[in-house]
Amino acid sequence: MTSFADRDGYIWYDGELRPWRECTTHVLTYTLHYGVGCFEGVRAYRTPKGTAIFRLEDHTRRLFNSAKIIGMKMPWTPEQLNEAQKEVLRANKLEEAYIRPMVFYGSEGMGLRAAGLQTHVIIAAWTWGAYLGADNMERGIRIKTSSFQRHYVNASLCRAKANANYLNSSMALNEVLRDGYDEALMLDPEGYVAEGSAENIFVISNGVISTPDVTSALDGITRRSVMQLAKDLGYEVRERRITRDELYVCDEVFFTGTAAEVTPIREVDNRPVGAGSRGPITAQLQKAYLDQVKGRSEKYPEWLALI
Ligand code: PMP
Question: What's the average model confidence in pLDDT over 44-51?
Fold first, then answer.
């Protein structure tokens, strides 16, 4: 596989489109050492009206909120970064893409106390298919509870999609991948269900849909979208504490995320969920979500930003 650094195309870097291979940074980049940065994961889909970025403004707002939470000063306005994301898709002639904006400090200083650090912003985009495998969108995935906990609320700030928060996600994910599972389930420090390494989780019992609140899970934009679509379909949706054993005996479980979209979970900790395949409500919500992002549903036109 070729390196991500060695590709054709353009990356938006501090206000201009630069050739992909020239978008390098120095090894003494502050964020590389301390993880102080924030990012987004956004998707653009081909729709009947042309390529559209799903909930662009909401993603950009979350990026600005992440920066505010971790105390980084943004050198651009949300409007400028919205436009820049569209520009990246046009410049790279991408009809469907995953977009990665990232905000970081440069090499203006070293040591935790470095003063005069400057905020830099990059936006890259590339073609990315089903994050957890195309077959698994129907079959469902196998997840395993990780021995790594989700962050304690006052240790890492989970409302921020901060680079440093992903040390935990990466360790949890790689632990379960090594053991042959598809994705990790993380519990919060009190032992309640929190989320996946890059997904929010939903559980369905007796037709009621529940998801943990966002004290120790990211305020996912797919989560918000699916909650809305589920309510529109007439389901009761609750945000509440969920225990690990509840997942073992419920009817359906699924993950949501920009990358994962709506991914069914067929097994939790080696126990089949429901019938051991994608459940009917999961299938219905998955279809509602994909219809929305691909512009086949006219329900929320404000969620689609045409490029
Ligand atoms: N939780 C974590 C830890 C994530 O990294 C993500 C992906 N951004 C999500 C949940 C899902 O969020 P979204 O639906 O906004 O992509």
Answer: 97
